[in-house]
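Issue: ligand-bound run for pyridoxal-5'-phosphate - logging full I/O for the record.

Environment: standard queue, default settings, no custom constraints.

Inputs:
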Amino acid sequence: MISFLDLQAVNGRWAEDIRKSLARVADSGWYLRGEETKSFEQAYASYIGTSHAISCANGLDALNLILQAYRMTGRLKEGDEVIFPANTFIASVLAITSNRLKAVPADVDEDTLELDESCLEKALTARTRAVMLVHLYGKSAFTKDIADFCHRHHLLLIEDNAQAHGCLARTQEGWRRTGSLGDAAGHSFYPGKNLGAMGDAGAVTTDDEELAALVRQLANYGFSEKYVCPFQGRNSRLDELQAAVLQVRLAHLDEDNAHRRRVAEVYRRQIVNPKVRIPVRTTDDDRDDVYHIFPVFCAERDRLKAYLREKGVETLIHYPIPPHLQQCYAGQLAPAGSLPVTERLASTELSLPMSPVLSLEDAAAVADLVNRF
Ligand SMILES: *Cc1c(COP(=O)(O)O)cnc(C)c1O
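Outputs:
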């Protein structure tokens, strides 16, 4: 059996360090807003390359807190439009709509699976105020054209970096990490992400001092100081146990991502089935890929999935129903059929096993099976 992602093995590699960290917190008697959280935030900000990292309870909250803060400062107003890539995970959209902003899906480019300037151009209206850029599958979605587009139209550039910790993109100032490319970024440390905790966890990164302070305040009830509440916040805190685990995992993130790239190379080199399309390589141009997911596309996706399962290979689908076709957004985002690329991707996508502990032999065996389909 080749599993999609063996988290026991992923975290088992650092079992000793993780146990020590957990014990340190347990023995300390201090479980929230303490030294572990502070050192993780410092380490993560310095890793991403922003002046601030504010930890919070999960990735959805990270995006929510960013948008709530912009709503409070008046930078975003009720009904303002936020463009997002139509093929993203539902959380990107939930954050927009729950802040009473209008979520506007833009269809993506079929080859890169991401937004380009022409996609944005089509979704732009007089009420557009922000772009939510999602580095989906671990691949940087940032381009100079997108940055210029946002600049030209005075739009906020908000990154959803839940799937791309450690990924790089070329900017005017050289290579920078995703999460440091726009005005603010939300990160998720859900256990299965490239940088994963042992439970829920998330963070906001930004260079904007005012935004950082507001996000920090909002995540702790809105308190300006203890029991003083100038505005309505929420409870979205990272706990010390997760912060301790994340420090262990962060120290190994680059080597984990390097292994994911090696697995991806095996898939790229060895999969030659004309029925199966593999994503174009973007890593030779101005952006990097940390392969959170290795998606392939096949018209007979369900049959391919069943075939691989029968041969002992576990696969997943990211994602079977795009946000605009979800029942929760019925009649709200875009009608069925209006985002043809996204809809086609959703009905043909299959995610092959991918993790920092998948052996290259197993990856080769998966590729071989895909070829025999
Ligand atoms: C995982 C994920 C989120 C949400 O993160 P949680 O920590 O699960 O709340 C948001 N956006 C994308 C693209 C994700 O993959």
